[in-house]
Design goal:
Pfam families: Pribosyltran. This protein is an alpha/beta fold and 178 residues long. It is 24% helix and 30% strand. It has a single domain, classed as Rossmann fold.
């Protein structure tokens, strides 16, 4: 797998530092609250595990699965809710843990869904923010790293279900997916 990576962008130590930094800020921002942490499957599971262990508050944890890439390297612009959240979100403060914000369409879909169900607030903590890819005007509240417009894998991010188990985030060689 490592031979398929052209460049490591963020190593394990850098990711751990980002989780620590965001966990401290989230703890401060949600002081006195019990947020519902909503992890977006499958990509954000590692990021979620690392960040919530750094949050010094009571939190509820739920999972939701949406799909927009459908196995490709770019968003299909068609977002599907695959697995819904099980808890009632009405009146709750929601913190979405996302692996990457790219076009912003998936995040917009989630925010609209949760707010339409009566969520009190919705914030986002993403590992990666790819601002160059935005198609909608949306931003993450907490960002681990800004990333350039490359196809990245590792640390939960995949290509056709592979590479999620890499302990770092790297750029996938173009010849692998072209």
């Amino acid at each position: 797998m490592n031979n398929d990576i052209s460049e490591v962008l963020f190593n394990e130590a850098q990711i751990e530092e980002a989780a620590n930094r965001l966990g401290k800020q989230i703890t401060k921002d949600y002081e006195g609250q019990k947020p519902l942490v909503l992890s977006v499957l499958k990509g954000a599971y590692l990021w979620t595990a690392d960040v919530i262990r750094k949050i010094d508050l009571y939190v509820d944890l739920e999972f939701i699965k949406i799909s927009s890439y459908h196995g490709g390297v770019s968003s299909s612009n068609e977002i599907a809710l695959v697995t819904d959240v099980q808890s009632d979100v009405k009146g709750r403060d929601i913190l979405i843990l996302e692996d990457i914000v790219d076009t912003g369409q998936s995040l917009q879909f989630l925010e609209d869904l949760l707010l339409s169900r009566g969520a009190n607030s919705v914030r986002v903590a993403t590992l990666l923010d790819k601002k160059e890819g935005r198609k909608v005007d949306i931003k993450a509240d907490y960002v681990g790293f800004d990333v350039r417009n490359e196809f990245v894998v590792g640390y939960g991010l995949d290509y056709k279900g592979l590479y999620r188990n890499l302990p770092y985030v790297g750029i996938l060689k173009q010849e692998i997916y072209s």
